[in-house]
Amino acid sequence: MSVFAHWPNRITALRFVGAFVLFGLLTVIGDGDPRQNAGLIQFSFWLFVVVASTDFLDGYLARRDNLTSTFGRIADPFVDKVLILGVLVYLAVLPWSREWVPAWAVVLILAREFLVTGIRGWVESTGREFGADRLGKVKMVLQSIAVGGILFLHAFPWPEEVFPYLSWMAHALILGTIAITVISGASYVLKTRTLVEEIKS
Amino acid sequence: MNTLRLAFVSCCFLGCSPFAPGTVGTLGGVAIAWALAGTGSMFPVWALLVCVVLYAIGRPLGAWSEEYAGMKDPGIYVIDEVIGYLLTVLWIGGPSLTTLVVAFFVFRFFDILKPPLARRMESLPGGDGILMDDVVAGLHGLVLVMIPVRLFFPDLGWDYLDDLGR
């Protein structure tokens, strides 16, 4: 039976397609002022909200209806990372958004993902489970809110007195995201060190 | 006679689609809502009336379609999705194109998610078991998403898609 016979994997595939549509929209907006393209940036924002908020849905449905699959196990986290990191890369490059997303922040977040992926591969090769812990989930949610927040900031014509306040919040969200990303990465490292010592002894 | 029954339960054979019959069948609901959009402020009344008629005809045909397809809650039976969609889009005033599209995704979301209450409805006997879970899913869409969005974001640009054509 095809891997797309059931909804969990279909949702994963649709989210992947949605992420690329979003990249396409951001490419079209490009260097231009997003306010000149209000329809496109608003659609991008809502598309991001839908794709990011359905993160939990595929995994939840697969577990509830006993439809978990190898495809889903690999594709679901892959799509999540392509979405968040992909949009972050775009936001770090586009002139209207890079004020909020410094390149070094994206490098830091990417580095954390590579490190955790490496650790996960090793831990699972020892036959142990390596699911996301609570801190990892908080990180994912905060990243999504921060990225959504920056799109939100540019998607709507805010009054001049409101904009600085929202802009400040977007800065704070990105800083919070960087902090929790590093902390959650460090917690995985510490856990793995404990595991390594356990195996040695 | 069987062809006539099949045409009804599959919403003009939309439910016979080889892929994602539920999603394709929901498009029948979109078509009905779009056709009723011209009724303006009377839209909720008309949509509700259509729901009641479809339910009344669809309920006794539930057993027939299960026998015809040889399985429980068969894919060809999509009148339940049509009713559920119409409930989600049930709107104060005629729906715009954007509303129709958003409601489509909102309804499919709740239909696929099947909230606990909707799951419980599946154990009802006969036609009710097939229809009620989608009715409940549709009401979830209406109450949890469509009404709050309409109340809290009245200026969200609900006619954005309509403007594209002009």
Describe the structure.
The complex is a heterodimer of chains A (201) and B (166). Chain A is an all-alpha fold and 201 residues long. Chain A has one domain: CDP-alcohol phosphotransferase transmembrane (TM) domain (Four Helix Bundle (Hemerythrin (Met), subunit A)). Chain A has helices at 7-29, 38-53, 55-64, 70-93, 103-125, 134-155, 163-200. In chain A, α2 packs antiparallel against α6 and α4 runs antiparallel to α5 (103-125). Chain B is an all-alpha fold and 166 residues long. Chain B is globular. The mean pLDDT of chain B is 86. Helix content of chain B is 70%, strand content 0%. Chain B has helices at 2-9, 21-36, 43-69, 79-89, 97-113, 116-121, 126-152, 160-164. Classes of the chains: A mainly alpha (201), B mainly alpha (166). Chains A and B meet through α1 and α2 of A and α5 of B.
Main features:
heterodimer; A: 201 residues; mainly alpha; Four Helix Bundle (Hemerythrin (Met), subunit A); 7 helices; B: 166 residues; 8 helices; 0% strand; globular
Biggest interface reads:
A-B, 9 and 7 residues
Proportion of strand residues of chain B: under 5%
How large is the radius of gyration of chain B? 16 Å
User: Distance between termini of chain B?
Assistant: 44 Å
Which structural class do you get from the secondary structure elements of chain A? mainly alpha
Number of domains of chain A: 1
Number of helices of chain A: 7
Supply the helix-strand structural class of chain B: mainly alpha
Overall morphology of chain A: globular
How many domains comprise the coordinates of chain B? 1
* CATH-scheme architecture of chain A: Up-down Bundle
The major pleated sheet of chain B works out as:
none
Provide the CATH topology of chain A: Four Helix Bundle (Hemerythrin (Met), subunit A)
* Superfamily (CATH H level) name of chain A: CDP-alcohol phosphotransferase transmembrane (TM) domain
> What is the chains' assembly state?
heterodimer
Q: What letter string, H or E per element, gives the SSE order of chain A?
A: HHHHHHH
Please outline the major beta sheet of chain A: none
Average pLDDT, all residues of chain A? 91
- Tally of helical runs of chain B: 8
